[in-house]
Predict the structure.
Amino acid sequence: MFQFFLSAWALLLGMGLLMVGNGLQGTLLGVRGEIEGFTTFEMSFVMSAYFLGFLGGSRLAPEMIRRVGHVRVFAALASLISAVMIIYPFFPETYVWVAGRVLVGFCFSGVYVTAESWLNNAANNENRGQALSLYMIVQMMGIVAAQGLMLAGDPAGYETFVIASILVSVSFAPILLSISPTPAFDSTKPMTLRQLMEISPLGCVGMFLLGGVFSAQFGMGAVYGARAGLTLPQISTFVASFYVGAMLLQYPLGWLSDRMDRRFLIMLAAALAGGGAMVGIIAGGNFTLLLVAAFFIGGLSNPLYSLLIAYTNDYLDFDDMAAASGGLVFINGMGAIAGPVITGWLMGDAIFGPAGFFLFVATLLFATALYALYRMTQRPSTPVDETGAMATIYPTASPVALDIAQEIAYEADQEEKDEQEVA
């Protein structure tokens, strides 16, 4: 592991800085939109635009890399991100911010695909699992650290936007100076969404609903804080709580997923996360309860991403997992695009006001729990000893990291079964 860190520290440092920049711009726009007088519905389109661009980038980035190479794609996309960060405060218009967010989402998706390809190339079979875990931790820590930087400048000015741009600009210098060429992408066996739905209805429905939950956290959390009258430090802490929960509860849920009926665990985690959202609704002005709500929503909903993928894989051959994962990521992305728009509408003064944020999240999570309960009545559960290991992954990662994680989990599961047969 230490040898991997020596060979990949620049990549991890660069990605950490990129995630700080990404987390900072999302929260900063939510606060600045309130200052500029944007309506909640207008901000919902701004936030949704990121996920539209991200979905497009995840589909097009591999082809771009095949055509011009990893280095050129990474440098070009990272440069565009840095430029857009500066444009936001100079042109506080809805259509400019929407276009900027589409471009930033597209670029970040391509950057993740490229960086995760380098990550896979830098690791070997012995340390690939640890390398991916370290990468995921760096991603989440970057987003959490970004919330602290919100206090470094006045969101009504330009300083914080400049900081975000500088972080992104600095991030790709160590990466580009230290990387080596990576292998070309392998083509995967195709699978239609209809086939995927027939294989795992719960996986498809759950991923769509979860996309809305995740995009509400990542896109509308700061908008909620601004509309609810929280101070800037409170908004930063509130948004960070989602990701702190995700880091701390990911592995306990992963441990449970390999030891019980995954449908029951999906139902339980979704119901508890929905309960956390209800706490947010009744919290009123109690900031402590808001933090508790954010912690449990983020801590229980983010691991559901890995859990739904693992559940779907239980009904697939290994050769079909990559194609199925691509379909699930696409479905999740469609839900993520719709999430902020619906949230913004519910948060309008004529509807539910700021409480619409938690109401939307609660509705999606309870719907996931109820559908999981329904699916438990439709076919027998897969015996625990016949299920595969859960690949730990966050919704912020690209399909490349997901493929790596699944391969690691599959190989670990096969080794464990081989050892049991020998014993």
The CA atoms of residues 53 and 106 lie 4 Å apart. The first helix runs from residue 2 to 36. The mean pLDDT is 85.
